[in-house]
Amino acid sequence: MIGTLLQIAGSLGMFLYGMRIMSDGIQKAAGDRLQSILNYITSNRFSAVFTGFLITAMIQSSSATTVMVVSFANAALLTLSQSIGVIMGANIGTTVTTWIVSLFGFKFKIAALALPVIGIGFPFYLSRSKKKRDYGEILVGFGLLFLGLNFLKNSVPNIQDNPQILEFLNNYTGLGFWSFAIFVMVGTVLTMVVQSSSAAMAVTVTMAFMGWINYPTACAIVLGENIGTTITANLAAVGTSVNAKRAARAHFLFNLFGVLWITIIFQQFLTLVDWVNPLWDRNNMHDLPLKLSLFHTLFNLANTFICLPFISILAKIVTKWLPDKGEAKLLPYKLQYISTGIQDTAQINLLKAKREIEAMTVITEKMFNIFLDLYQNPQKKLGNLIEEMSNMEELTDQMQEQITYYLVECTKDDLAENSLMNVNAMLRIINELENIGDSCMKLTYLLQRRYDRKIELHPNADEEILDFSKMVIEFMALNKEQMNRHMEQRVLELAFKLEKKINSSRDELKKASQKRLQAGGEVQGELLYMDLLKHFEHIGDNSLNISQALRKISK
Predict the structure, then answer these.
(1) Nearest one of 146, 261, 278, 162 to 205, comparing CA atoms
(2) Is 322 helix (H, G, I), strand (E, B) or coil?
(3) Ranked by mean pLDDT, which of 191-195, 362-366, 525-529 comes out on top?
(4) Res 215 pLDDT > 50
(5) Are 14 and 151 contacting, i.e. CB atoms less than 8 angstroms apart?
(6) Phi, psi of 80 (to 5 degrees)
(7) What's the sign of the alpha-carbon dihedral 181, 183, 186, 192?
(8) Which residues contact 500 (CB under 8 A, 6 or more apart)?
(9) What is the pLDDT of residues 234-257, one digit of tens each?
(10) How far apart are CA 382 and CA 446, in angstroms?
């Protein structure tokens, strides 16, 4: 018995390892395409669902997708409603793995399929070409996954030779509703233990295929797996913002609600599955895996269809469940590296870093706009805005440190070659953004000194400063629009022209200021004016460095 359990554990381990390698290869091959897919989220709830489905189908891990969603919600890069939509799509996307296993894992001689796939993929895996290695990784992972499934199927004892197994399960199959509840719980615990709904589903399908459990029991276990898979996102939400916790709880409530409503019509739903495809016989062991896959897919589609119109209501429920507790707005910035326990999510982690850089870009732009607002409206309460600027400047310092550390962690994973190039560009960008934040803070301190000491600037200073600031705003807006994308040569040339224009204006205004000083102008006013110009010019230099870094980001 112990030997059998160890064989099953080893087979499951090979299955999970194959899934991990295949997922890593798919992520690296997909590369920046994941970013463009993720950008589609912001359109509407339907696009959010589709995005969740597509990313999960691509990377073969709903856990990775939901952890990513919690992570982005934590950084306020996704709204709660968008997060819920992506999670719904991830539930549908996870059925793709089930179909792959059911279509190929039990209809064919798996070893006969797996070993040739590994044989084809391994030479690519050893190739010097990074792209070929990625594709080789996909093939090797695919082969190991099915080889593990083959071992799993052979490790599970045949029911005819081990009738005691069926007798054990029979103790729990004749209890009506309680039988259903028990096996839902079994599915929940199984998924929590293996930390992968796809692996739990493979175990369930195998047990049904070998005759350990019947079709209704297997369906009940599958429902439990939908609850168990939410544990990963909730673990990832520990120690995060309230918005991230809400996204994780929404995942749990969504899946739990699906199990509750199907409990009421369980037998009728099984009949519906039979009606959708009457050719697959639930009592035929060769058809049973496909029947379970169909049940799994129809359930997730139905649950999403029912809940989709009520995303806003679900968001309100979790908001009431986890209300804001009046926490201080200034919390230490912490960028947590994603780990699902089963699969690395290197490319998804890189997507998160890109999103954080976009957020940092917005913060620096806001800092400059606050400075301009203060310059044009000196009657405003300066103390409050100085404090806000100081908090934002401290945040940019923390973001620089945390994102840098995070990107270094990303490089420890086996990233694609173009992704490594992107990391180097991103490291330069965050350094320049932090410098812009520092310059904005220094500009604000100059204003504070001006107002505190009642320093007067020359009559044309306001007009000149505002005209100069428009060039800086244009430069910052250009980089913001291009952020995390490959900057085309024509756009980079525009950046060079803007930087040259800023330098030229600085030189002209500085010469004019020096002439005013020589003519007996106000010393304090002219020195402060030249300091303002100096920091404007620094922001222009930083912006050009960002543009050059964006040029090096891969297409």
Answers:
(1) 146
(2) coil
(3) 362-366
(4) yes
(5) yes
(6) -60, -40
(7) negative
(8) none
(9) 776 766 668 778 888 998 999 999
(10) 12
Q: What's residue 137's pLDDT? A: 81
Radius of gyration over alpha carbons of the chain, in Å?
Answer: 29
Q: Which two tokens stand for residue 63?
A: 């856990």
175-190 pLDDT per residue, tens:
667 778 888 888 888 7
Q: Which residue has the higher pLDDT, 455 or 59?
A: 455
SS3 for 199-241 is HHHHHHHHHHHCCCCCHHHHHHHHHHHHHHCHHHHHHHCCCCC
CA atoms within 13 A on the CB side of 213: 24
User: Is the domain 346-551 a CATH 1.20.58.220 member?
Assistant: yes
- Token pair in block for residue 219: 């369906």
Q: How far apart are CA 203 and CA 193, in angstroms?
A: 12
One-character DSSP codes across 84-124: HHHHHHHHHHTHHHHHHHHHHHTTS-HHHHHHHHHHHHHHH
CA nearest 298: which of 46, 105, 61, 91? 91
The rounded Cα 64 to chain-centroid distance in angstroms is 8
Task: Please name which of 395, 402, 398 lies closest in space to residue 336, comparing C-alpha atoms.
Answer: 402
Over residues 499-524, the pLDDT tens digits come to 999 999 989 998 988 888 888 888 88
The token duo for 33 is 């395409």
Q: What is the 3-state secondary structure (H, E, C) of 63-85?
A: HHHHHHHHHHHHCCCCCHHHHHH
Cβ neighbours of 207 (radius 10 Å)? 19
Mean pLDDT of the chain: 80
Distance CA 7, CA 174 (A): 30
| C-alpha–C-alpha distance, residues 259 and 378, integer Å | 60
* pLDDT over 70 at 173, yes or no: no
Whole-angstrom Cα distance, residue 156 to residue 165?
11
Residues 63/197, Cβ–Cβ less than 8 Å: yes
Could you give the residue ranges of the DSSP H alpha helices within 309-416? 311-321, 346-376, 382-411
Q: Can you give the residue ranges of every domain in the chain?
A: 2-321, 346-551
Dump pLDDT digits (tens) for 305-359.
999 888 889 989 999 988 876 544 445 666 655 554 444 556 667 777 888 898 8
